[in-house]
Amino acid sequence: MKPGPIIAMIVLVFLGMWLVLQPALARSATDLTISVGAIEIMLDRTQTDDGQLEYMIIAPELLRSSKVYNPTELDAFISLQVEKWNDRPAFERHLLGFFNITTWGTFWWVLIGLVGQTAFFGRMFIQWVISERSQVSTVPEIFWWFSFIGGLCLFTYFVWRVDIVGVMGQSTGIVIYARNLRLLHKEKNKQPPASTQSS
Question: What would the mean pLDDT of 149-174 be, rounded to a whole number?
Fold first, then answer.
């Protein structure tokens, strides 16, 4: 076995872990998290010299600013966010909560995950149909393409979701799928053209 795929797998695992670790560390550095519907507002708490508490919004990005809130201002701000959330139509609140997203702008990330999962289902379905037709267990090339595309999409989605289990599961698979595609390509290049085979 060549060392290249193993090195690529290790690099991808560590890259995925690093990508997930950055937001996870930022999240664990927060002092207070308040949920408003599907939105998690993360706050950093500090104390002034005269003992007063102040809060700064760390996440989500759409609410972050350099403004510092005292407890009264923070209550008013949170009440406003609750009011804004409740002003949304019920179906929108339910759908955003269902997909665990805060805005429709982030639905693209969910769509990437859905494409990846669809590709993973598609690979198994195609492999099953081809095997049933030939009555022999067969793994066609399209299986590896669907696996590779699905793995890339799911890796990207899990990084966005800050899901270390998903990232680690997909990072090793991507290399295996790419390696199988490479081996298939090399095998095709070894075979002589059809015109020389018949002569």
Answer: 90
Q: Read off the amino acid at residue 12.
A: L
Contact 70, 63 (CB under 8 A): no
pTM of the model: 0.72
Q: Which two tokens stand for residue 77?
A: 């701000």
Alpha-carbon gap, residue 185 to 45, rounded angstroms: 57
Domain boundary among 53, 68, 102: 102
Question: How far is C-alpha 61 from the geometric centre of its chain's CA atoms?
Answer: 17
Burial of 129 (0-12, 13-18, 19+ CB in 10 A): exposed
Same domain, 38 and 86: yes
- The string of pLDDT tens digits covering residues 4-26 is 878 888 888 888 888 888 766 66
Closest CA to 106 of 64, 63, 168, 62: 62
Domain count, the chain: 2
